[in-house]
Amino acid sequence: MNLNQALTQDLARVAPLYERVKTVIPDVEWPIHARYVAAINDLKADRNAVILAHNYQTPEIFHCVADITGDSLALARQAAATDAEVIVLAGVHFMAETAKLLNPGKVVLIPDQRAGCSLAESITAADIRELRRRYPDTPVVTYVNTSAAVKAESDVCCTSGNAVEVVESLGRDEVIFLPDEYLANYVAQQTDVRIIPWQGHCEVHERFTAPELEQYRADFDDLTIIAHPECPPDVLGVADFVGSTAQMQAYVHRERPRRVLMVTECSMSDNVAADVRDVEFIRPCNLCPHMKRITLANIYEALESLEPRIEIDPGIAEKARKAVERMLAIGG
User: Fold this and answer.
1) 28-66 burial by CB neighbour count: b if 16+ within 10 A, else e?
2) Residue 152 shares a structural domain with residue 251
3) Strand ranges across the sheet with 156-158
4) CA 252, CA 177: separation in Å to the nearest integer?
5) Which of 8, 17, 185, 286 is most buried per CB count within 10 Å?
6) Same domain, residue pair 80 and 125
7) Which residues sit opposite 262 in a β-bridge?
8) Mean pLDDT of 52-58
9) C-alpha distances in Å from residue 50, one per residue of 43, 64, 230, 301
10) E strand or H helix at 68
């Protein structure tokens, strides 16, 4: 079989997948993706593997090779429940670490080890130890967008979707909440618990500005703006709805606004638009450079070689796992 015949065969095999994404992936690009999509789905079966993909992954990954999709909370829950022997995390490094924490006996792969996170890198385990010295007996709530070493120094983890519930579950008058300053500010407005924040930021969400969004509202009639709570407070003040990536996605599916602007990483708009075709998406595109390190090519290479693997020091893993499991037990 020559290359043209092989491509024709692969295109036929994955044609149903293209039907799902054809509104967000131009037909001229699809043949480039199709060979990898077909090969990855074959290799997953051979390896007894699953691919977990965050909402910020591109549509050809999110809709065409992923078995489990969602925000960080959904991925954490599903990672804990999977029966697969191999987990490929199409996301960033801290997400792969979380999957490994919940599956210590399984192979967990990150297709590119350079897929980091500016927010996770804004705080260290030593920083938390210093905070505990300054605020003795104050519990530490840590956003899952952190390293395993930071989680290990924490009492409980949270996500943007369950942060308020986690904070209030502790039954304390004050908590240390880290590392995202803007999420901490948002949580403080939703609870009577005193929040002691850290000044970490997401390089994607902190770039949005209120004047930018106000201009979009002036340019488009009937525009609905929905924003992630990692955005600055003035941005959240302009938004019609604020929520986690899962909550934003559910809002669009439920409310079906005529036009919507999702104030978050822009691949998420593409992924939701593929399923909600009666809504017009206005896209102020802020890309996460770390998420975009994950490609079909390196997903295939990771499955083929079973590398790079996520490994965590056992002492750190044991303590970090407890913080994540406490979060999962709380729910949200």
Assistant:
1) eebeebbbbbbbbbebbeebebbbbbbbbbbbbbbbbbb
2) no
3) 156-158, 140-143, 174-178, 194-197
4) 29
5) 17
6) no
7) 226
8) 95
9) 10, 13, 29, 14
10) strand 68-70
The answer to whether residue 82 scores a pLDDT higher than 90 is: no
Write out the H or E segment, with its range, that includes residue 177. Answer: strand 174-178
The CATH number of residue 176's host domain is 3.40.50.10800
Of 302, 318, 288, the closest CA to residue 148 belongs to 318
pTM of the predicted model as reported, rounded to 2 decimal places: 0.92
H or E element in which residue 252 lies:
helix 245-255
Q: What pLDDT, on the 0 to 100 scale, is given for residue 5?
A: 67
- In one letter, which amino acid is 27? D
**Which pLDDT does position 299 carry in this prediction?**
98
The model's pLDDT over 94-126, given as tens digits with 9 standing for 90+, comes to 999 999 999 999 999 999 999 999 999 999 999
Residues 161 and 211 in one domain: no
Distance (Å) of CA 319 to CA 21, 102, 129, 322? 41, 12, 14, 5
pLDDT over 70 at 331, yes or no: no
Distance of alpha carbon 48 from alpha carbon 81, whole angstroms: 15
Angle, to 10 degrees, between the axis of helix 296-305 and the axis of helix 30-47? 20
Q: Look at residue 315 and tell me if it is in a domain.
A: no
